[in-house]
């Protein structure tokens, strides 16, 4: 039975608890945004006030040639300022990226009952979770997004337990991306004056997760958000966008040719490109040298949007702290040592609120 879109409790049960998601609600036929999804004015995304990030993507194939130093400089500059950049010639086949987008649309195009079997409470696998918004029970206004999250342990379990519609292409995406991730981490840590051996690089990406996000069409994008303001908790995030756009990043300090402090910049979709962003773990590790990027997603009224991120993080049991060489050099640790699992619990226990999650690791200077 269809819920009353004017009854908040009834709608919450239908979308969240029964697993119909935002898509199930949209499929009922919407002429206006239901009240639980209307964001406070300060959280809405005004396209007219945002600028577009017009810098050319970084050609990753140049890292192994005579332009090595220039490519390193481009990567480091991006990570010390905006925390976001785009890569082309990254080693992940473009036809695979197209197949990924198709697989995401196919998964979310299924009847709700087929997706709802992966709800956290009933999922047949601890590696797979289907949900909507971020932490719906804690949010003042819900986010206009459904997602499927797939944790990687090994190839065999992924091929056995991830959803059949997308398991093979998602696994291939993850595996072909990891060489790029390792090279990026080598570049970034060497720039800090630290040589990490393979085991320490492995520890920074000890847990890997592939998500598929689905943003259904929205009758009034000006009132909603696809994802609220946040930074990612992990080390590096690799993101595939489709051609629709809607990803916005906050400028934390004035950057020539990009924007002024406090402005939001749209990261436009580029054919064949992957978006890379710094997570909180790398900000902690670098003692604040690299900046995890505060970002958010706008909805669209024209066509449903998909995005497919890979989140790389330490394992929950791993300890995370600023690299001792950097603390010795700078004279002060800005973040405390913590068990990453504790950081994760705090991150997922609260609604999105900018970079507030980093407060959990911050050392008060007072």
UniProtKB/TrEMBL annotation:
Listed GO biological process terms: coumarin biosynthetic process
Cofactors that this protein relies on: L-ascorbate
Keywords: Dioxygenase, Iron, Metal-binding, Oxidoreductase
Boundaries of every Fe2OG dioxygenase domain copy: 200-314
GO MF annotations in UniProt: dioxygenase activity; metal ion binding
Family: Belongs to the iron/ascorbate-dependent oxidoreductase family.
Designated name of the protein: Feruloyl CoA ortho-hydroxylase 1
């Amino acid at each position: 039975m269809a819920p009353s879109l004017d009854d908040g409790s009834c709608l919450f049960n239908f979308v969240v608890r029964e697993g119909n998601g935002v898509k199930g609600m949209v499929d009922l036929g919407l002429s206006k945004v239901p009240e639980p999804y209307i964001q406070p004015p300060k959280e809405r995304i005004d396209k007219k006030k945002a600028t577009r990030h017009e810098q050319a993507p970084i050609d990753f194939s140049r890292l192994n040639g005579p332009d090595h130093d220039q490519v390193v400089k481009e990567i480091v500059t991006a990570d010390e300022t905006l925390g976001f950049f785009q890569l082309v010639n990254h080693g992940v086949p473009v036809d695979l990226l197209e197949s990924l987008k198709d697989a995401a649309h196919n998964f979310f195009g299924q009847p709700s009952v087929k997706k709802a079997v992966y709800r956290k409470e009933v999922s047949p696998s601890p590696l797979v979770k289907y949900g909507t918004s971020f932490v719906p029970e804690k949010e003042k206004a819900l986010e206009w997004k459904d997602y499927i999250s797939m944790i990687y342990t090994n190839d065999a379990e992924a091929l056995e337990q991830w959803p059949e519609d997308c398991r093979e292409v998602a696994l291939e995406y993850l595996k072909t991306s990891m060489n790029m991730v390792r090279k990026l981490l080598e570049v970034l840590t060497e720039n800090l004056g630290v040589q990490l051996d393979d085991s320490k690089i492995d520890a920074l990406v000890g847990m890997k997760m592939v998500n598929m996000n689905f943003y259904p069409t929205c009758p009034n994008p000006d009132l909603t958000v696809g994802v609220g303001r946040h930074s990612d908790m992990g080390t590096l995030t690799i993101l595939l966008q489709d051609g629709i756009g809607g990803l916005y990043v906050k400028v934390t300090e004035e950057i020539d040719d990009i924007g002024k402090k406090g402005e939001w910049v749209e990261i436009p979709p580029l054919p064949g490109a992957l978006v890379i962003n710094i997570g909180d773990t790398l900000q902690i590790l670098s003692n604040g040298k690299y900046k995890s990027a505060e970002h958010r997603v706008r909805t669209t009224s024209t066509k449903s949007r998909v995005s497919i991120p890979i989140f790389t993080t330490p394992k929950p049991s791993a300890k995370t702290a600023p690299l001792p060489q950097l603390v010795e050099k700078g004279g002060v640790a800005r973040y405390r040592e913590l068990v990453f699992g504790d950081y994760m619990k705090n991150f997922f226990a609260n609604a999105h609120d900018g970079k507030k999650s980093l407060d959990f690791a911050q050392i008060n200077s007072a």
